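Comment on this:
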Amino acid sequence: GGGIVAKRAMTGGPTITLASGLSTLQNVIIQSTIQYPLTANVAVTSTDVYFVGYSGGMQAGVLSVPIGGGTVRTLVDQWPGDAGAARALSVNGIVTDGSTLYAVTNGSAVGVLRVPLASGAATVLANNLVDPWTLALSGSDVYFLDLGLGPMSGTLQEVPEVGGAAKILLKNLPSPWAIVSDDGSLYFVDE
């Protein structure tokens, strides 16, 4: 197989392959998507757990519950600014910095959303994407992977967490589907 796990410094520089020749990556992601929630579908703050909701087998926005248990509430379940018939959110991944939640969505509404936890008033950070899959935060930026239209059309992109133009950092990726960050690097998995 040709699956890889890779690392890239947020300040630029080369992409470093940490592991390659991984033939089981596609099986893992398919199994996780269909049967089990991905860890990218769960985020936690000091008070609440946020997670992607499901209704009738379809993703249904982002919900939350207090860490100690309690009532489940809906944080966001439709694309912001929809007039008339609201488009339900099909959320592929979420991450939080403790005060704001960021989500990647696809389906009828495709993009990256910023949702302040106090208000739940979502705004669009990036749209006109093809198939965004998951995201990570570092500093004042949101990094996300877009699968693209087919083989070798995936991208790693960056957008400021307060909004602005998305910037493509890497392109022509075969099938990027998982990303995390630490203090100085992005780690991503590409099939």
